[in-house]
């Protein structure tokens, strides 16, 4: 075979091998980016949900305490002539 043809085949083969490797690396980087992006978004959503839940529980507890205090006050008023 002609040396020039062999050289061209080798050059073409190495070119496409490089392209395949680059494509694989780009796909890995994109997968990593997507995972980290989704994870950050999910963490933020859960943080907001937990904050809302905690706020709701605090207000619920405060309301129960206030009602209990009001009931005690009413009970004391009934006892006192």
Brief summary:
The chain is mainly α and 81 residues long. It has one helix spanning 3-79. The mean pLDDT is 89.
Topology, pairings included?
Blueprint: H1 3-79
Order of helices and strands: H
* Low confidence ranges: none
Amino-to-carboxy terminus distance: 120 Å
According to DSSP, the number of beta strands is: 0
Report the mean per-residue pLDDT as an integer: 89
What would the principal axes of the Cα set say about the shape?
Answer: rod-shaped
Biggest sheet architecture: none
From the alpha carbons, calculate the radius of gyration and give it in angstroms: 35 Å
Tally of separate helices: 1
User: What would you call the structural class?
Assistant: mainly alpha
Q: What share of the residues lie within helices?
A: over 70%
* Percent of sequence in beta strands: under 5%
Characterization of the model:
The chain starts with a helix and ends with a helix. By secondary structure, the chain is mostly helical. The chain contains 1 helix and no strands.
